[in-house]
Amino acid sequence: MDRFIVISGCSGGGKSTLLEELRRRGHQVVEEPGRRIVVEELGSGGSALPWADAPAFARRAMEMSIADRSSAAFAPGLVFFDRGLIDAAAALQHLTGEATLAALRQFHRYNKHVFLTPPWPEIYVADRERRHDLSAAVAEYDRLRMVYPSLGYQVHILPKVHVEERADFVLSTLNSA
């Protein structure tokens, strides 16, 4: 759907900060499924966590992403997704070998322009919900950098600049398209 724009890329690369800026500018934002799942699982003592049962975590992220897309259909204007279905499907395929990405060529489409945050070691921080190290984040980024174009998306690597400039870059790219 042309109104659904994905902001993805390297963990700790500034996605959430960028999305907060886009929200501040009046756009709809859908929070990252992975972070929401980790908070829920930690709160309930569940095991669908990336460090405990990564395939279960990725399956939940796919389910949540599909539900997020359905809910976002009613939102007006552009809707920015902090990661989403493709990220979760790519993770599950990487972990299990299941061909989860194949159906996404035709179904559950996003805007053809996808924005990736590159690895940014100077701002990377692990926390309660993000326990992996920078090398794992970079490996995931490298996979996503290949997955999105393979599904027909045009990838734009976000510059390592102040958040306002990053938001301007995203919006001007979309306005030029």
UniProtKB/TrEMBL annotation:
Q: Which InterPro entries match?
A: NadR/Ttd14_AAA_dom, P-loop_NTPase
Q: Which residue range or ranges hold the NadR/Ttd14 AAA domain?
A: 5-166
A UniProt-annotated Pfam family: AAA_28
UniProt-recorded name of the protein: AAA family ATPase
